Amino acid sequence: MMKFKPNQTRTYDREGFKKRAACLCFRSEREDEVLLVSSSRYPDQWIVPGGGMEPEEEPGGAAVREVYEEAGVKGKLGRLLGIFENQDRKHRTYVYVLTVTEILEDWEDSVNIGRKREWFKVEDAIKVLQCHKPVHAEYLEKLKLGCSPTNGNSVVPSLPDSNSLYVTSGQTSGLPSTVR
């Protein structure tokens, strides 16, 4: 079943990339178990919950709204992990860390489109995502490469669009490149 949002307005940055926001939803602050949801387009595949930003919406607010709609969870919004670029689909996604504090039994996408959710160990989630959502797998790879809550990188400054940090889908070092 296809997800349909009649009043959805897509927002784009100055370079024509669709602005998106997502959260890596963790069961605890240990960040060892992440929540994935079934894809609305391919229900047998898992994805990181996220979606398009609405006009005038801040990235953090959009990320929290998307995980509430898609995964039926609320929590404590943590650091911005990075802004990930998908060249193929022309998306730039602000990815945050969220520690889940509340899990709804029924939520918008479970009722409307039968979306499922499941907890995965981080290593397993990377394997599950790599084949069909490699950019989503990169979110978790970057998390493992040094953005753990104990290494002092707990706050990433919010920068204007023109000098934001981006991770492109071809990078393997895990370090963001600056796009101007």
Automatic annotation (TrEMBL):
Enzyme category, top tier: hydrolase
The protein's location, in the record's own words, is:
Cytoplasm
Report the CDD domains cross-referenced here: NUDIX_DIPP2_like_Nudt4
E.C. no = 3.6.1.52
- Which Gene3D superfamilies does UniProt cross-reference here? Nucleoside Triphosphate Pyrophosphohydrolase
Positions of the Nudix hydrolase domain? 18-144
Tell me which cofactor or cofactors this protein depends on. Answer: Mg(2+); Mn(2+)
Q: Which GO terms describe its biological process?
A: adenosine 5'-(hexahydrogen pentaphosphate) catabolic process; diadenosine hexaphosphate catabolic process; diadenosine pentaphosphate catabolic process; diphosphoinositol polyphosphate metabolic process
Q: Which GO terms describe its molecular function?
A: bis(5'-adenosyl)-hexaphosphatase activity; bis(5'-adenosyl)-pentaphosphatase activity; diphosphoinositol-polyphosphate diphosphatase activity; endopolyphosphatase activity; metal ion binding; snoRNA binding
Q: Which GO terms describe its cellular component?
A: cytoplasm; nucleus
The record's catalysed reaction(s) read: diphospho-myo-inositol polyphosphate + H2O = myo-inositol polyphosphate + phosphate
Q: What is its main location?
A: cytoplasm
Q: Which InterPro entries match?
A: DDP-like_NUDIX, NUDIX_hydrolase-like_dom_sf, NUDIX_hydrolase_CS, NUDIX_hydrolase_dom
* Keyword set includes Cytoplasm: yes
Keyword annotations for this protein, in alphabetical order, are: Cytoplasm, Hydrolase, Magnesium, Metal-binding, RNA-binding
Q: Per the similarity annotation, which family is this?
A: Belongs to the Nudix hydrolase family. DIPP subfamily.
From the Swiss-Prot or TrEMBL record, give the protein name: diphosphoinositol-polyphosphate diphosphatase
What organism is listed for this UniProt entry?
Answer: Crocodylus porosus
Identify the coding gene. NUDT4
